[in-house]
Design a protein that fits this description.
Blueprint lengths: L26 E7 L6 H8 L2 H5 L3 E7 L3 H9 L5 E4 L1 H9 L5 E9 L1 E5 L15 E3 L6 H12 L12 E3 L6 H7 L5 E5 L2 H9 L2 E4 L11 E7 L1 H6 L1 H20 L1 H16 L5 H8 L2 E3 L5 H13 L16 H8 L1
Parallel strand pairs: 1-2, 1-3, 6-7, 6-8
Antiparallel strand pairs: 3-10, 4-10, 4-11, 5-8, 5-9
Helix pairs in contact: 1-9, 1-10, 5-12, 6-7, 7-11, 9-13
């Protein structure tokens, strides 16, 4: 089955005319996100008009990305001002001296380790001599899998080991790679891992809640830059309020949220995901704005242990939830 070929590996622009009227805004804001289920808050916020309503007077575009590295590139060059991204790329950028700040979480969990049906891989130990893919080198899912491999004495080819890692594989493209036997396993964000399980009989090697920091680590965070926050605090507050509305809606309206996410993916790929896939994938994540700073630090420390970063990480200043807490009290 040929699914999601339109995503490719290039950055896809998914622009939304979200301006809330009133003669057009003087401020233009681009918000990034991915076509993944754990980005439900961003998708719901766009499609239900929460960002348009809360950011009235601002011209809002939504820009779709296939991976976190491309998102960070766009944030660093000012092509987007804020958005939804995995914590891995954001942490790596921060530790390199980049300007990025986490304002809230968007979801926890949502990483599934799966293998091709006929690969013979049923446990992490079976990955020895085989290959796996992730959306990006050093991405959240990559580090989660590699730290688990290290704990059982395995290393990837990046560290001279026997497990081959193919990075920068857009999640939707994992389907074709499994179909064609080009890859043995994947550390996949949802719903793509569950899609491989249900539609392609992939083996679930590690469930989401057994993955390293699976239930506590934010799989998606809402970020901006400190510079943009200083110069546009009111706009950021409006966006965060829209984010909170989106999270609350997703928590309380499961069926409508899944339908909305599926329709958004269809608009990009001309293919709708089976309801069974979305329903099962939804149970492998938690939509939440709660940010667990300790889990982010544990992940960063693991990234250092795996030599993705060169110095022992200190994430002080990486997350600033002051605005979020103030808005939640209102």
């Amino acid at each position: 089955m040929r699914l999601f070929a339109l995503l490719g590996s290039a950055v896809l622009l998914f622009l939304s005319a979200c301006s809330a009227g009133g003669g057009g805004g003087t401020e233009e804001v681009s918000i990034g996100y991915f076509p993944n289920l754990d980005h439900a808050a961003g998708i719901v916020g766009k499609e239900k008009g929460f960002f348009a309503e809360e950011m009235a007077g601002t011209d809002v575009d939504f820009v779709n990305f296939p991976n976190g590295n491309d998102f960070i590139d766009a944030l660093s060059t000012g092509n987007i001002q804020m958005g939804y991204v995995g914590p891995g790329p954001a942490i790596n950028y921060f530790l390199q001296g980049g300007d990025v700040v986490v304002l809230a979480a968007a979801a926890n969990g949502a990483t599934l380790i799966v293998s091709r049906e006929d690969s013979g891989i049923y446990t992490l130990e079976d990955l020895n001599g085989h290959s796996f893919c992730t959306p990006g080198n050093g991405c959240t899912h990559n580090v989660q899998l590699e730290i688990m491999l290290e704990r059982i004495g395995l290393k990837t080819n990046r560290l001279g080991g026997t497990v081959e890692h193919q990075s920068r594989v857009a999640p939707a493209n994992m389907v074709a790679m499994f179909e064609q036997g080009q890859i043995d396993a994947a550390a996949a964000p949802e719903p793509w891992g569950t899609l491989l399980e249900i539609e392609h009989n992939a083996n679930v090697v590690v469930e989401w809640n057994d993955v390293f920091l699976g239930e506590d680590l934010a799989s998606v965070v809402f970020v901006t830059t400190n510079e943009y926050l200083r110069e546009n605090r009111e706009v950021v507050e409006q966006a965060l309020l829209a984010h909170l509305r989106s999270v609350e809606y997703a928590q309380n309206h499961k069926e409508e949220t899944l339908s909305t996410v599926n329709e958004a993916i269809y608009n990009l790929t001309q293919t709708r995901l089976p309801e069974e896939v979305l329903d099962r994938a939804w149970g492998r994540m938690n939509v939440t704005a709660e940010t667990h700073a300790d889990a982010l630090q544990y992940w960063a420390t693991a990234s250092y242990e795996l030599k993705f970063i060169n110095e022992s990480p200190d994430l002080e200043g990486f997350a600033d939830t002051e605005i979020l807490e103030q808005l939640k009290k209102k």
